[in-house]
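Appendix C reproduces, verbatim, an entry submitted by the partner laboratory led by Prof. M.T., so that reviewers can inspect both the input and the predicted structure.
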Amino acid sequence: MRKSLIALLMGLIVSLPLSGTAAASGSARPVPSGKAALTKNPIYTTGEFDFTECKELDRRPDDVDSYKIYLDHLMDCLNLSWGEEFKQAGLPFAKPKVRFITSAVKTGCGKYPAPYAAGVYCPVDKTMWILIYKNQLADPSEFELFQVIAHEYGHFVQDRVGILPAVDKITRKASKATYFAWSRRIELQAECFSGAFIGSVWHSLGRDQFDWDDLLDMKYGDVLHGKAKSIRYWLKRGWNGNGPGVCNTFTAPASKVA
């Protein structure tokens, strides 16, 4: 995978991977490739998430350990929810490796973090890198971290189901404009995946409508991730759909992925 595609996935983490891996039971079908991986992926056929509980754990100001426990629990929820989706899709599943960091490190995708980037999934080392930074530690009630991790987990899903490899192959010799267009479909799908997960567990989080509206208001667009209105559209589409089936950005009209 060329470095430029990897770079657009960079996003927040000191050590401790989640222990163990999980595979879908029974005989898994081959991971799709090419256009079928993008437009007819089995992950789109699984319906809503089955697991709808993910209580947020408390975080304490300036307490890195409490943040690690919070994030480990969130990863457990994501693994449980997405693992069942993979099982229903008949695709092989294994948990991503996870590293928490408080300063810059070298990853398989280069040096991380970029300034104020909360999380990143690196397809080279199959690892989610999560940065716990000073400003974040000062506000343990914020909700953006939850959504960012769900978004980066969405990139892990895209990798596992063949979407990232398919886009990488398509864009290796593409023009800059074409590359940006594919990047937006990737990023907006990850936003939708995160919205679907959040919507499925929302009632268990103890949050109110202000937290969701505030999250939407904080979204700003760029050429790689899409316009703010597109980001909000796909987040809300996922939220309302509660599953990956509503997140097929690869068949969406260009106006929805601008």
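The beta strands are 97-101, 105-107, 110-112, 119-122, 127-131. Additional entries are available on request from the coordinating office.
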